[in-house]
Amino acid sequence: MKVLVPVKRVVDHNVKIRVKPDGTGVDLANVKQSINPFDEIAVEEALRLKEAGKVTEVIVVSIGPAQSTETLRSGLAIGADRGILVKAEGKVEPLAVAKLLAKIVEQEKPDLVILGKQAIDDDSNQTGQILAALLGWGQGTFASKVELGADSVDVSREVDGGIQTVSLKLPAIVTTDLRLNEPRYASLPNIMKAKKKPIAETTPEALGVDVTPRLKVIKTSEPAQRKAGVKVANAAELVSKLKEAGVL
Fold it and tell me: How far apart are CA 10 and CA 211, in angstroms?
């Protein structure tokens, strides 16, 4: 059984985001970038399925600039078998990403695609759902538990009323939530081995996909700064302050 795991290169989650002075976007100059945390969870889940003997090969695929090779190497260092890079400059929107992944799926014919539920740079939360629609596959989103069978996969997810479990016939799409697992760290020997693992390269043009953006960002701005709080002596003063603020 083969599993495909898309991984995205994003600004590291520990970095404080800075907006460009002209408001045209986020300043990426000299900013550390790494694998999207939700995608890291997806890679970890695929590897656990492989270690359980249910999966034979884990392939990581990334769509982005040449630097996305580093993101693929991170996935390979954790334990993925090989990588695929779709070289694309500029912003690639979720619809275009899903179309590119659909082409990769046609070539690789995986039994399961596991991907993060969203990327932390745009929080779109669309790619997995669009990919499932394009392929006509069943989907289990926001997975907190994944149980893979011979020809089906059970996906448990948290809902308002408790835990919902859906059973999907393979091939299928699964998107991961934070509670699914705790990703492992790459060891130094595995980081060295990852340098020798194969990474195939292709382009949107070669796959026959138009990635021209359909959306235009008018302005990017930082959230308003929070005002300092004040201490109150008693409940009466608290009510008075709330009335002054227009809350009551």
Answer: 19
- What confidence score (pLDDT) does residue 17 get? 81
- C-beta of residue 82 within 8 angstroms of C-beta of residue 4: no
**In 3-state terms, what secondary structure has residue 43?**
helix
- Cα gap 235→59, rounded to integer Å: 60
Q: How far is residue 197's CA from residue 69's CA, in Å, rounded to a whole number?
A: 12
DSSP 124-191: ---HHHHHHHHHT-EEEEEEEEEEE-SSEEEEEEEETTEEEEEEEESSEEEEE-GGG--PPPPPHHHH
- Give the chain's domains with CATH numbers: 2-220 (3.40.50.620)
Q: What is the mean pLDDT of the chain?
A: 92
Between the alpha carbon of residue 171 and those of residues 45, 90, 109, 201, the distances in Å are 16, 31, 9, 24
pLDDT digits 0-9 by tens, 50-109: 999 999 999 999 999 999 999 999 999 999 999 999 999 888 999 999 999 999 999 999
Q: Answer whether residue 32 shows pLDDT above 90.
A: no
Average pLDDT over residues 181-208: 94
DSSP class of residue 227 equals P
Q: Are 153 and 110 in contact (CB under 8 A)?
A: no
Q: Please give the structure tokens belonging to residue 138.
A: 């069943």
pTM of the model: 0.85
